[in-house]
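2024-03-11 09:14:02 DEBUG pipeline.ingest accepted 1 chain
2024-03-11 09:14:02 DEBUG pipeline.ingest length=108
2024-03-11 09:14:03 DEBUG pipeline.predict start
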Amino acid sequence: MGILNRVKRVDVGDGDWIDVRVLSVEEVRTMQRNARATKAVGGEEKPESEGFAMLAAARKRIVGWSDEAKVTPANVDQISVDMNTKVLQALVEVASPPLATGSASTDT
């Protein structure tokens, strides 16, 4: 498979799965920046519009699934919010660097 373009299988319940192309840390940062740049519409609060933008970005990473239907933009748009959230969580989890546990300074 190689290092680039890895795919992660996300369990979405009831024996179903969705395959997504894994994000790099920079791609996660870009998704977050783009989400923050969204404007709230029609009574949405800003955090809500950012969340929907992140969910939409995660859907673009779907490359396969257990459903018989082909992976097309129209079909991907039909997945449930719950499944979409699981996909987003899996993408961000894989791309998130571990947090430092000590001081970053090497000064003595």
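2024-03-11 09:14:41 DEBUG pipeline.report Residues 7-95 form one domain.
2024-03-11 09:14:41 DEBUG pipeline.predict end
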